[in-house]
């Protein structure tokens, strides 16, 4: 079975995936996106995190109890020397019981990410963002063909379709949702030449707090469009194609990115030319920065399509980006502070949606066409 991975494994960690409809914020995204999205919602975030943590504990305990006899029965059929087979079957059983227990408490938590209408809507926004970009026609066609082929699935389907026993890389991927499946995560990958965006059970459980289907959709919008963006990022189409964007980020924002060990060695070796270091560090974050840009464009297009008021657009952006509050930079993902405080609010599409006007930016805005004028 042929199995390839995008990136190597392109994942976006969701630490606080929650809807903040009740937040009474005095600030706005134009003036301070970090204050509006992360600080003004802090109390609500803590309350929801506490609720979700308790809910996950209950689900995990019930699932474990129900899985135990099934696992013992499985061991009677699978010889002990087939330890990998046993491990995989145990994982499948636990995941099945986890989703059953979750659905009993929450209902159909998977439909928001697997509903064909929702997926088609997000793909439609991706096509529009591609059409409105500065890339040449051949690249646009290639991008749209790739996006069209993407399947948005749940993790249960993924482990059922994957030959985990005979594929070590697939086994590693199976842990992307955590040993209990409850990590708030989503990732992009390719299985048998089929491109996927996969959503972990832990991600879906947090949608329980959303007040409506609209809020649930807004909450997953940036996450899914970001992961779709990974299928057409610089890792797949090359740094040169995204050179204008990456060069703008390297020139204006590279000091905001942490270095990997390889980056440290490279920068020390080329310390006489700081621009080489800036470029290298930015490219280490390139896949995430490109995927974020596609996510930004999609959220802006959604606000326009729904004809949201400024207040509704701010709430949608809060629902869609709040999960990144407080996230760190390990040398691949930019920090949440940078993504929420700089990358998203300075984007011209977001400024247009929020009618921010010609406010003076503390740092230049970078688009796929380069520095915004």
Please explain how this structure is put together.
This protein is of the alpha+beta class and 373 residues long. It has helices spanning 29-39, 42-77, 83-106, 111-114, 116-131, 137-149, 155-161, 168-174, 201-205, 213-230, 234-237, 243-253, 261-269, 274-284, 286-305, 310-321, 336-343, 348-354, and strands at residues 3-4, 10-13, 151-154, 185-191, 194-199, 366-367, 370-371. The longest helix has 36 residues, at 42-77. Strand 4 (185-191) and strand 5 form a beta hairpin. Mean pLDDT is 85; it is low at 1-26. The strands form 2 sheets. Strands 1, 2, 3, 4 and 5 form a 5-stranded mixed sheet that branches. A two-stranded antiparallel ribbon has the order 6-7.
Could you write a compact summary of the structure shown?
It is built from 18 helices and seven strands.
Give the topology, please.
Blueprint lengths: L2 E2 L5 E4 L15 H11 L2 H36 L5 H24 L4 H4 L1 H16 L5 H13 L1 E4 H7 L6 H7 L10 E7 L2 E6 L1 H5 L7 H18 L3 H4 L5 H11 L7 H9 L4 H11 L1 H20 L4 H12 L14 H8 L4 H7 L11 E2 L2 E2 L2
Parallel strand pairs: 3-5
Antiparallel strand pairs: 1-4, 2-4, 4-5, 6-7
Helix pairs in contact: 1-16, 1-17, 2-3, 5-6, 5-10, 5-15, 10-15, 10-16, 12-14, 13-14, 15-18
Number of helices: 18
Give the low-pLDDT segments. Answer: 1-26
Number of strands: 7
How much beta, percentage-wise? Answer: 5-15%
Instruction: Tell me the helix content.
Output: 55-70%
**Through-space gap between termini:** 49 Å
Overall mean pLDDT: 85
Return Rg in Å: 21 Å
- H-E order: EEHHHHHHEHHEEHHHHHHHHHHEE
Q: What is the overall shape?
A: globular
The secondary-structure class comes to alpha+beta
Q: How does the major sheet shape up?
A: 5 strands, mixed
